[in-house]
């Protein structure tokens, strides 16, 4: 009996202890949960405070720049908010009004200053060595999307190995010049005496870092069927019989066109020092061949020939270059035009995937409206074509509605009002 009572007491004690322990555990768990919730809320509040300015409807790039600026200048939340508001205000002022006739404004903004451009065909980049087209001709060339640039030039940046070393850079620049046999020789023809001689210009050979022996070897190889005799820098040729004149003359003319060294299309080079490094400016352009060379910085080499750029680097690169070159022409003449007008024109010229000029065979040809095509050039032809094909005029654009004498759907014309 006594044993049973003792057992019972122990059971009751155990139960009380375990109940007490359970209560303590519950309290601890509750405390932990509370702390977690508090931390979560604090974090949420903190994040909301930190990120509240990020709700401002700005582009991703602008938001990233705001973050970068606030980190650099260690701005607090209030200051960052203020900065974001200021930028938002500026951003809103830059936005185009709904219904704004952006095309016409861009056309005016580029067309009017275009009349102020110089008629000088070329100016010289740094020296009389490299001529660059400028003024109205260059602008016309870009806007028309011409397949051949009149004054193609390249700017070649060098890699770390030689960009600071003047002598190496100079040697490399000379090795780019396209040299043909005819550029470095003087021809003395005496066909009636059955002989002729080729004199190699020592001065030119020396200036271009070429070897006299190599050139004389090239010449001898080109006319290997003839008897030759070399005296210093002159090679004398003897013709065997009279009947070979025509054949030999043909071979000689082919030999004159032979390449001695350099890159096809590059006529002259000029070494210029810019911001502590040497760069090469060239007259003539061959982007494909230059990109294969070893001493160049491929990421910065560019040509001013837009068509060539589009073929080698793609349409996006050509679009960028179109805007850049137009801006440069205007800047050179001291004319300030908002870059957005230029970018709109560059977009219009390249959106089909190839460069289309603002000419009758370019972007005008792509327009769906017969009236719009007829309003540009060759009016009768376009109207007759459209009539033969039974084309429909939907009167959606600006020009078509002007011709039909209707209000244009631009600006206030976009809104239709009903009055009771």
Q: Output the structural class.
A: alpha+beta
Would you identify the regions where 5 or more consecutive residues have pLDDT less than 50?
Answer: 45-50
- The mean pLDDT is 80
Task: Spell out the helices and strands N to C.
Answer: HHHHEEHEHEEEHHEEHEEEHEHHHHHH
Number of helices: 16
DSSP strand content: 5-15%
Number of strands: 12
Helix content: 40-55%
Largest sheet: 4 strands, antiparallel
Distance linking N and C termini: 105 Å
Shape: flat
**Order of strands across the biggest sheet?**
10-11-3-12
Q: State Rg.
A: 38 Å
Polypeptide structure, described:
The chain is α+β, with helices and mostly antiparallel strands. Among the domains are: 1-43; 56-95; 183-260; 370-414, Orthogonal Bundle (DNA polymerase, domain 1). The chain is 50% helix and 13% strand. It contains 16 helices and 12 strands. It has helices at residues 2-51, 60-72, 77-94, 102-114, 135-143, 166-176, 202-207, 212-222, 245-256, 287-290, 306-313, 315-332, 339-350, 370-374, 379-389, 398-404; strands spanning 122-124, 131-133, 153-157, 179-180, 185-190, 195-200, 227-231, 234-238, 259-261, 268-274, 277-283, 302-303. It has a 4-stranded antiparallel β-sheet. Strands 5-6-8-7 form a 4-stranded antiparallel β-sheet, covered by helices on one side. It has a two-stranded antiparallel ribbon with strand order 1-2. The radius of gyration is 38 Å and the shape is flat. The protein starts with a helix and ends in a 16-residue tail after the last helix. Mean pLDDT is 80; it is low at 45-50.
